[in-house]
Records
---
Amino acid sequence: MRFTDSFIYYEILTLFFVISAAEFFTGLYKSDKWSKNEWYINFAGLFLSSTITRPISFLLSAYVLNYFFPQYYNAFEYVPLWAGIIITCLLEDFTQYWWHRAAHTYTWLWKAHRVHHTAPEMSVFLAGRNSWLYLLLFPSRIVSTVLIFLGFGQAFLIGYFFKAIIGISAHSSIKWDKPLYKIKWLHPVMWVVERTISTPATHHAHHAATDADGIGVVNGNYGNMFFIWDMIFGTAKITREFSEHIGLEDYHEEPWFVQLGYPFFKSKDERSELSH
């Protein structure tokens, strides 16, 4: 069976709706924290990520590759599928780790990524919640296009599916890992799991409003699919606990188009980072 774009995205969409339904039935969206503006951000962010910036990035990168490097098209199609999956997953996610880390280091990029952290609670919707600038410059998308161009198409699609499962579930309010930490015979397994991939516990800590509770790590736990990057580069924090406060500690809500469209749109609230 050959995987295709349409097959993979259908599966990812199904996964997204199943988990979002689980969040709904567990009472997440009944909170008064979810204002109309927050829902505008969620849906507009998903549209921006999947329908606008992703195709633009892919088409531009593919054009450059075909124009300047046609001789390398499918140059690595001989690589076994299993090896291709490992290669594409590691390269694509490694790129995203450093881009994500840079977004918490450089002010201009932080303003483009900030909307990802203004959500009042964890939810699957955070997976696509970023501004146009952050998404359009997203280097891992360029890396993805290069890998597909070089002949890793099938491997990339399969790897991307696994990445979506991990990334979406790590952002979700469904804490699938929490009960597993309490099962004694699973302790060695979970010790390996939480140091290998992103889990709700480690990624929720990244979205905490503060580090003061001893759980949150605002500038750390950057991994999306793999947590190994945080382990290797010293940005990991593992507590197996969940912060009570998610979002930004000093947050003054701006309109959805400001958060997603900065710097074309700026906040009129002088207290906001997006006002200048």
---
Amino acid sequence: MGTLSYIKNFIKDRDVAAITPSSSYLVKRVCRWIDFDTPCTIVEYGPGDGVFSRYIARNMHPDSSLVLIESNDGFVEDLESFQAQNTQVTVVHDRAENVESIIEGHDLDPVDYIISGIPFSFLDDPIKTELIQSTFDALHDDGKFLVYQNYNHMEQPLRDQFPRVEKEYVLFNIPPMFAYEARKR
């Protein structure tokens, strides 16, 4: 799936914020905050066509698991093909707001990493706050929430919930992105 599919989904689905897949540079930049050498549980909100997902699956420990939460029908169909080729991957056709029930329903260990590129700027403030709280609650005590966004609108909401937040600006992506590492402790 490429740029054309992203544009089609962008036009049809208000929850899709990107018109192009994330660059390999952005993927590697955000994923450097993940310790791939140890078994872990990783959740990705809104994986789209799976640019981050494929990179994570190639690099994660053999005893790790990756849960992809996607609400867009077209993206889910493509992700299910990817899931069929990788036993460590589970695709859930749902919304990120339901992360806690998804984790419980799939009998997952506390989550070590949650990655998100969903457009938080499209969410109403109460929903955004609730999703950040649910994410915090779903994470293991040493867990991290890794977020990438077009605008620098997530720094304060993340700082309101997480005790440590690092931010970087990633130029080598269309459009450039802000990347955040929010640590639970």
---
Amino acid sequence: MKPWRKALVNSNVTLEQAIEVLDKAALRVALVIDSSDKLLGTLTDGDVRRALLKHMPLETPVSQVMNTQPKTAEQSWTESRTLSVMEQYELLQLPLVDEDRRVVGLANLHDILNKNRHDNPVFLMAGGFGTRLRPLTNNCPKPMLKVGDKPILEQILLNFVEAGFHRFYISTHYMPEVIRDYFGDGEKWGITIQYVHEEEPLGTGGALGLLPHDEIDQPLFMMNGDLLTSLNLHSLLEFHETHNGVATMCVREYEHQVPYGVITSEGTQIRSMVEKPVHRFFVNAGIYLLDPLLVKSVGPDTRIDMPTLLEQQIDGGKAVNMFPIHEYWLDIGRMDDFHKAQSEVKSLLND
């Protein structure tokens, strides 16, 4: 039996019976349900004490004592959104219900707060034109194209939210109103979202200069808004914090096979022959963790690409580390990538 099921009581029980359930379940709340598990109300220690102060007998039906309008969270909500409601109403528990208001779980504030929650800012780059995906992007920014039942940008955001991140910045340029109207201030996900807008394209690193630099007080995640990945964000953060660099770039291994036999020679003599050799390289995966001082070094209206920015740091003697990604990763830049994402997103989300 799942622990929260021990807190369920039928609406026809007495106050005394409900108190027994409240004590035995040790969850600080009893969930009052009907015969089909629909939530009718909740009973807390405070409700019991108020009833006793009114000298209500223990034989009183629990329906006369319970809170008949308890706050609830929907089963589909992210953990961050659930936590936001609990903090807003100062709740220690919050019943989880499905679309028919049947009880499917119980959120516990202590359990949620004990999970990883990170204050690192997250910067999502969503200003590209997506010209290689036309005509799909004629009336829709590329990050807002749906993969499965959600826009690419929402899939990215949810990956961060589920990992415990709640401070987001989004950079826009092409059709910014579509992105702003959809995501708003982030309340839907229990997070905060601020926007910066590039009047003219500033390159892949220039938008860093538009951020409110006084708010960037921890390493900042920066990610292109057209990537689909199951990257372990906790591992990336731990790697960055233990390797003392000004930046960490995520990389992917890329294989290239020469379709011919390759010859090495000395003068006119052949020294070796290798048939269709495979060469392996690390390539930029479009995901970074950046030290606050590096972020703040990019001034407003600076046009610069990320490789150039990082090369400047390397030339200045600063350490720029790389973090190899072995997890799923797909850059949705071309039409065949987009179709591939549609066929692979379900298995990615089920991992």
